[in-house]
Amino acid sequence: MQFEIDLLRQQVARLEVENTKLRQVIEENTKCKAENTELKAEVLKLRHDFEKLKWQTRVITSTQNMPSFVEQSHLHKTENISHSPTSLPLPDYYFDRKDNISISRRKAKPKSLEEKEEDEFLNTIHKAQVSKEIIQSIKEKKL
Fold first, then answer.
1. Cα–Cα distance measured from residue 48 to residue 31, given in angstroms and rounded to the nearest whole number
2. Inter-residue contact 44 to 133 (CB < 8 Å)
3. CA 38, 40, 41, 46 torsion: positive or negative?
4. Distance CA 105, CA 74 (A)
């Protein structure tokens, strides 16, 4: 009888040690999951920021490629002057502005099929991530 009790105590001791190890593993897993969630959120934010910068770059580039209102009016005025039989005197401020205007226009490079597919893919991922963020924030608000 005493022998069986000793065996049971040894088995309980082994199980307690194993239980302690498992609790440590669970704690590590919880920390890793929390860190993973934070890193995913950071990656999502960085991707969002990257897409925002990419979009801003496109807007700036397309804005630079389009002639400004001043440039258009300058081009329009010079066309009218060259076609008119008599030249009219222009005010001084017109010449001051003309010197500061850069008329050089860059043509936008056409996107390759690969770039278009990449943009579509990134947009799809971004939309999915935004919807996940919205769902997560709704869930957090409910809690």
1. 26
2. yes
3. positive
4. 14
Ramachandran angles phi, psi of 71, nearest 5°? -65, -45
**Per-residue b or e along 29-66, where b marks 16 or more CB atoms closer than 10 Å to that residue's CB:** eeeeeeeeeeeeeeebeeeeeebeeeeeeeeeeeeeee
Q: Output the pLDDT for position 108.
A: 62
User: Which of 16, 115, 2, 140 is CA-nearest to residue 58?
Assistant: 115
Domain ranges of the chain: 1-66, 67-104, 110-143
Residue with tokens 């307690």: 16
pLDDT digits (tens, 9 = 90+) for 31-49: 999 999 999 989 998 999 8
DSSP 81: H
CA-based nearest residue to 95, from 74, 75, 80, 81: 74
